[in-house]
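Give me the fold.
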Amino acid sequence: MSELFGDDFITITDEDGQEYELEVLCSVEYQGCTYLGVCPAGSDDEAEELEVSVLKVTEEDGEELLEAVTDEDELAAVYELLLNDYEEEGEEENP
């Protein structure tokens, strides 16, 4: 499902075979699962509204899969963690 191009970019293929390149902004652990904060590759970081999606890393038959988070409470908790992590990384880069 996912193919890593480096530390920051992945390509995912949806159920219809359409490929999307995404930039991984950050990842966090929540209740024993890994979640990624991603945006479309090539998005302008200076844009007023960066479209960030949250994907949950799962494993099926030994294959790593990424899936959308549909539970609103889970999504809100993970989004808050991702936002905090992303802001902390920005502070470390610009002391």
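Confidence is low (pLDDT under 50) at residues 1-6.
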